[in-house]
Amino acid sequence: MRIGFVGLGNMGLPMATNLFNGFKNEADFIIYDINQTTTSNFLKDHNTDANNKDKVKVAKSPLEVAKEATVIVTMLPASQHVESVYFGKDGLLEGLGENHLVVDASTIDQSMATRVAKVLQEKGAKAVDAPVSGGTGGAQAGTLTFMVGSRSTEDFDVAKPYLEKMGKNIVYCGTNGNGQVAKICNNMLLGISMIATSETMNLGVRMGMDPKLLAGILNTSSGRCWSSEVYNPCPGVLENSAATRGYTGGFGMPLMAKDLRLAVNAAVDTKSTVMLGALAQQLYNQMAANKEFEHLDFSAAYKWLAENSK
Ligand code: NAD
């Protein structure tokens, strides 16, 4: 068996590492990313067996991945990257058939996820959308939550053993595209709660409160949320947070802006009212378009508010 992985970025690299470690006795690997530094690093770290130099191969195109691997995971930034990897020239689609299981773990819009599934299923392949929650820490620890959309629970059962090597909670969300529905809703709430936590921490600090003390009180009171407790945006509150390491790594600002855009577009399509979601989208758009903030983690909302409070 050969397993393929496409998109080895902040999330994909640790996920591919866990998948590799989980199946290294049963499967060989083939990887592809337009960024050759990340594929070379993966190769260097995982192709050390002198007797089996082909354990990990770097493909020249997604098509090569589809030709060589029967199980393929993709972890790409947004819908347009998924479209190009699956349907573009030398894309996955040209090489797929009935022996393939394809898992797209990227966060994309529901309609692209259902289109991918439909086209792949017409070729006989099993296709599931399985976006994740848990951040880069969860990807490294193999504790991600996978929100899985699939045509049937049988397809879900086929995908599950692979997802279990990368995650702790593998949740069936219903038909293809429903994984994205769950993920988009979760991230709208996360985007809003991160801004709310940032506003709260900034206000408390400016009123003279010690940030660690304030966070501790919030986290034993009714204001507690994931953004205040696990991913506090104020530097120094948590030892290993993105905020404490200068907002580097983690979940990039353009990705959160994209997820809020997905939520607002879905709200327009379904005539749903999302006032706070729309406000949050505007703020992340501003930050993602700013040279100083575009490469920072989304929790730099705190830094943005602090700098705009003077
Ligand atoms: P990233 O930008 O760090 O990584 C994306 C990778 O895809 C990069 O290595 C890039 O070179 C590669 N890529 C882009 N276009 C490609 C193409 N055409 N062919 C092959 N490779 C290509 O992004 P990430 O943070 O790893 O996020 C990936 C997905 O996971 C996004 O949809 C994001 O919304 C979602 N997500 C991210 C986090 C997080 O904390 N970073 C958490 C949950 C979900």
UniProtKB/TrEMBL annotation:
Keyword Ligase: no
SUPFAM superfamilies: 6-phosphogluconate dehydrogenase C-terminal domain-like (SSF48179), NAD(P)-binding Rossmann-fold domains (SSF51735)
Enzyme class, spelled out: oxidoreductase
Listed GO CC annotations: mitochondrion
Record-level GO BP terms: L-valine catabolic process
Pfam families: NAD_binding_11, NAD_binding_2
One GO MF term attached to the UniProt entry: 3-hydroxyisobutyrate dehydrogenase activity
Catalytic activity: 3-hydroxy-2-methylpropanoate + NAD(+) = 2-methyl-3-oxopropanoate + NADH + H(+)
Entry keywords, A to Z: Branched-chain amino acid catabolism, NAD, Oxidoreductase
Active site positions, chain numbering: K183
Transmembrane segments: none
InterPro entries per UniProt: 3-OH-isobutyrate_DH-rel_CS (IPR002204), 6-PGluconate_DH-like_C_sf (IPR008927), 6PGD_dom2 (IPR013328), 6PGDH_NADP-bd (IPR006115), HIBADH (IPR011548), HIBADH-like_NADP-bd (IPR029154), HIBADH-related (IPR015815), NAD(P)-bd_dom_sf (IPR036291)
EC code: 1.1.1.31
Domain (6-phosphogluconate dehydrogenase NADP-binding) ranges: 2-174
Pathway: Amino-acid degradation; L-valine degradation
Family: Belongs to the HIBADH-related family. 3-hydroxyisobutyrate dehydrogenase subfamily.
Record-given protein name: 3-hydroxyisobutyrate dehydrogenase
